[in-house]
């Protein structure tokens, strides 16, 4: 640098605004110490041609590489420049006479380069720091991967074993899922257990509603079911149970039990669907050592769920089938016949009451013994409308109300089946008609009362006047005899009216002691017109022998049977009425000489609504009511009939207690 | 002695009339209640036969009309035996109840005469 005069910073120098300190030294020796004590942004050397400048620059390069170096010389040859570049890495050469301005420009450029270098080196430093960190991270990751790989390799064996276990379990589940009986399930379980030696056959115990305990166990190779009413607690967890527990098994099976392992089964379906708690346990006898026990317990733990599930299902199926059996029994136990009938009137199912015989295809064949649909059958209407319908059918003299309920298997669908309930309403219909009859009799009674009043007045006068006149005429005269007849006729008329009044009384009149003969005598006058063409043969022998009855009802019975007898004889015949008694009972026989009752209807004549009379001429209730009246009095009514000689009805009544 | 017979049935009146007349009674006849009441007011008979069911005033109506001024024994007669019986007849103020039809008119007259003793 030598002797350079102080330099004024020119206007255009870009660094003038920054703090730039320029230090001048005249000799390399002086300048050299600065290289060691301060940092420079750029270094300018003026070489005198002795090569010392270059040497300084080489040193400056070593000491302060970030400061671009400028070499200024009078003359520079090619080798000097090469040396300068190669050794000193000179940034710029300034040759010959250089203007001040040029020097400043070079400085500026050198300073720019310096700051570029500085920031670049900063960047480099930073990035190298980051690199180091990254490197450390990669390193630790690598270590982890390494470790992991090692672990995976190590556990691969275990995994394979685990997989194998799963596979075995899946196979077991598959096997179990298709089984429908305890036997099949227990056989599979037994096969599974075979890989453990020293293991006995499994025993399944099941309890529902806590009453009975059911056992399924292998006995000489086949599965047997047995039951016990002894109650004992089932363990709630898988365990080797105490001897207190095993004693129940020992007692039940009548043999000692070795060490056992008990697994409770979870019966979710059974409990939920049956609404009550069901319990089941598997009991496995074994003679495993404690060490062998561990894999066995694990083995069982794996299988507990699928076993529980499948046993649960089978138990439920068992219970349900016993339920459906119970349902069947329930339906069989019902009083009314019930049948499920399809759209073609074919019987799908029926209870026992429906037909005690072999059930034929069609409902009307089975139930009514017909070969066509019963009159009044509600099935067609029920199926058509999809709503319950009711109808009345007659079968063998009995009246059934048929309630037909369509069976809908899916909502909104069409039903093709109905459930038919057959209610025998014969009796209630009979009661109804008897009530009607009672009302009818009541109306007749009312009418009779009015007529009786109207007739009794003149009859009283007639009879009384006759009695007065009888006092006044001579007893031997024909007039007296005539008057006697008039008086008798009037008296008879009065009695007929009284009988009519009695006859038309309703039911539930007080019972009284009366002789059958008296009843017959009261009744016959009312049947005069019916009897008029027939010969009447009355032979009554029980006057003074009483029966305890409601007189008007017994009168109605006598009236009915005598009336029937008269109507049975189309031509003039003989009506024979006899009464006789022994020490226990009074018998009344009413016989006609009609055509007799044909054998095919003999069985049915006491059935309500059975009649051979024309429509509107009989209710078919006369004989059935007669029978129920006589039976109410503790008696019986029967008939003998020989075609074509006639019929004899025999009414037997117990004698009244003295 | 006077007897009044109130009945819409002529034969009943006639037969009773014959029996009582023959026994020396003076007999009055009425075919309905109002006429009977008139006769009763006029002649004050000792014995009155009164039918229950009659057109116009019935037997019990006549009894009510008589009220407290009543004189003579009253015999109610009815063919509707179920309708009235002795007790209700007595409640209505009758002295006797005779159901119709009579079995024997002389027995009836005898009982009626018994009331006068």
Write a structural description:
- The complex is a heterodimer of chains A (658) and B (117).
- Helices cover 48% and strands 20% of the residues of chain A.
- In chain A, the strands form five sheets. Chain A has a five-stranded antiparallel β-sheet with strand order 6-5-4-8-7, with helices on one face.
- The N terminus of chain A is likely disordered.
- In chain A, strand 1, helix 2 and strand 2 form a beta-alpha-beta unit.
- Chain A is α+β, with helices and mostly antiparallel strands and 658 residues long.
- With 117 residues, chain B is of the alpha/beta class.
- Chain B is built from five helices and five strands; from the N terminus they run βαβαβαβαβα.
- Chain B has a five-stranded parallel β-sheet, with helices on both faces.
- In chain B, helix 1 links the parallel strand 1 and strand 2.
- The longest helix of chain B is centred in the N-terminal third of the chain and has 13 residues.
- Chain B is globular, with a radius of gyration of 13 Å.
- At the A-B interface, helix 11 of A face helix 1 and helix 5 of B.
Write the layout of secondary structure elements.
The complex is a heterodimer of chains A (658) and B (117).
Chain A: H1 28-37, E1 43-47, H2 52-63, E2 69-73, H3 78-88, E3 92-95, H4 100-177, H5 182-193, E4 199-208, E5 213-219, E6 222-228, H6 243-253, E7 260-265, H7 268-274, E8 278-286, H8 290-333, E9 338-342, E10 347-350, H9 363-368, H10 379-385, E11 389-395, E12 398-407, E13 417-424, H11 426-472, H12 478-503, E14 512-515, H13 516-523, H14 528-531, E15 535-540, E16 546-549, H15 551-568, E17 574-581, E18 585-591, H16 599-602, H17 622-632, E19 636-642, E20 646-654
Parallel strand pairs in A: 1-2, 2-3, 15-17
Antiparallel strand pairs in A: 4-5, 4-8, 5-6, 7-8, 9-10, 9-13, 11-12, 12-13, 14-16, 17-18, 18-20, 19-20
Chain B: E1 2-6, H1 10-22, E2 26-30, H2 33-43, E3 47-51, H3 59-66, E4 73-78, H4 86-91, E5 96-99, H5 105-116
Parallel strand pairs in B: 1-2, 1-3, 3-4, 4-5
Helix pairs in contact in B: 2-3
């Amino acid at each position: 640098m030598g002797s350079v005069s102080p330099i004024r910073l020119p206007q255009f120098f870009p660094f003038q605004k920054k703090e730039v300190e320029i230090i001048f030294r005249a000799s390399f020796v002086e300048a050299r110490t600065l290289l060691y004590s301060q940092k420079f942004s750029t270094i300018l050397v003026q070489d005198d041609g002795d090569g010392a400048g270059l040497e300084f620059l080489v040193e400056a390069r070593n000491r302060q590489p970030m400061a671009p170096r400028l070499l200024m010389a009078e003359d520079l040859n090619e080798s000097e420049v090469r040396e300068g570049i190669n050794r000193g890495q000179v940034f710029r050469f300034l040759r010959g006479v250089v203007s001040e301005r040029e020097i400043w420009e070079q400085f500026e450029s050198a300073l720019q380069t310096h700051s570029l270098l500085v920031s670049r080196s900063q960047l480099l430093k930073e990035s190298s720091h980051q690199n180091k960190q990254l490197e450390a991270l990669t390193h630790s990751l690598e270590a982890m991967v390494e470790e992991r790989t090692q672990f995976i390799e190590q556990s691969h064996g275990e995994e394979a074993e685990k997989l194998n276990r799963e596979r075995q379990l899946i196979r077991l589940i598959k096997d179990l899922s298709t089984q429908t009986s305890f036997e099949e399930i227990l056989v599979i379980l037994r096969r599974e257990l075979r890989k453990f030696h020293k293991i006995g056959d499994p025993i399944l115990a099941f309890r529902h509603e806590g009453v009975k305990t059911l056992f399924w166990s292998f006995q000489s190779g086949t599965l047997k079911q047995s039951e016990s009413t002894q109650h004992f607690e089932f363990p709630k967890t898988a365990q080797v149970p105490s001897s207190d527990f095993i004693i129940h098994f020992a007692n039940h099976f009548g043999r000692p039990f070795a060490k056992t392992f008990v697994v409770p089964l979870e019966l979710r379906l059974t409990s939920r669907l049956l609404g009550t708690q069901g319990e089941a346990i598997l009991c496995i006898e074994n003679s495993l050592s404690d060490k062998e026990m561990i894999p066995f317990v694990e083995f069982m733990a794996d299988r507990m769920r699928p076993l529980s599930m499948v046993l649960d299902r089978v138990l439920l199926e068992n219970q349900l089938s016993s339920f459906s059996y119970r349902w069947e029994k329930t339906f069989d136990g019902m009083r009314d016949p019930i049948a499920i009938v399809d759209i073609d009137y074919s019987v799908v199912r029926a209870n026992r009451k429906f037909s005690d015989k072999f059930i034929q295809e069609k409902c009307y064949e089975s139930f009514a013994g017909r070969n066509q649909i019963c009159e009044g059958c509600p099935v067609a209407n029920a199926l058509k409308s999809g709503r319950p319908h009711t109808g009345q059918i007659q079968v063998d003299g009995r009246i059934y109300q048929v309630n037909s309920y369509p069976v809908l298997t899916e909502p909104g669908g069409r039903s093709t089946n109905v459930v038919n309930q057959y209610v025998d309403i014969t009796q209630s219909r009979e009661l109804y008609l008897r009530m009607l009859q009672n009302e009818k009799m009541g109306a007749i009674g009312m009418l009779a009362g009015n007529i009786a009043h109207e007739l009794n007045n003149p009859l009283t006068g007639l009879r009384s006047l006759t009695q007065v006149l009888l006092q006044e005429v001579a007893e031997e005269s024909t007039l007296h005899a005539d008057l006697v007849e008039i008086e008798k006729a009037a008296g008879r008329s009065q009695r007929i009216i009284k009988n009519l009044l009695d006859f038309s009384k309703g039911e539930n009149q007080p019972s009284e002691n009366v002789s059958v003969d008296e009843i017959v005598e009261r009744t016959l006058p009312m049947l005069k017109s019916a009897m008029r063409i027939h010969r009447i043969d009355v032979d009554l022998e029980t006057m003074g022998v009483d029966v305890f009855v409601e007189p008007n009802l017994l009168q109605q019975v006598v009236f009915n049977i005598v009336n029937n007898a008269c109507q049975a004889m189309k031509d003039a015949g003989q009506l024979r009425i006899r009464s006789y008694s022994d020490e226990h009972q009074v018998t009344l026989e009413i016989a006609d000489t009609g055509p007799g009752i044909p054998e095919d209807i003999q069985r049915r004549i006491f059935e309500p609504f059975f009649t051979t009379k024309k429509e509107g001429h009989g209710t078919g209730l006369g004989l059935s009511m007669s029978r129920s009246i006589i039976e109410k009095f503790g008696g019986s009514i029967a008939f003998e009939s020989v075609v074509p000689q006639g019929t004899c009805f025999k009414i037997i009544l117990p004698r009244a207690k003295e | 002695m006077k007897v009044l017979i109130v009945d819409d049935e002529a034969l009943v009146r006639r037969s009773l009339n014959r029996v009582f007349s023959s026994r020396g009674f003076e007999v009055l006849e009425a075919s309905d209640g109002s006429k009977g009441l008139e006769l009763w007011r006029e002649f004050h008979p000792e014995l009155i036969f009164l039918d229950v069911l009659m057109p116009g005033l019935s037997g019990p109506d006549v009894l009510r009309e008589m009220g407290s001024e009543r004189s003579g024994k009253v015999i109610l007669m009815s063919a509707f035996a179920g309708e009235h019986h002795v007790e209700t007849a007595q409640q209505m103020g009758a002295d006797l109840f005779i159901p119709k039809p009579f079995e024997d008119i002389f027995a009836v007259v005898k009982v009626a005469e018994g009331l006068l003793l």
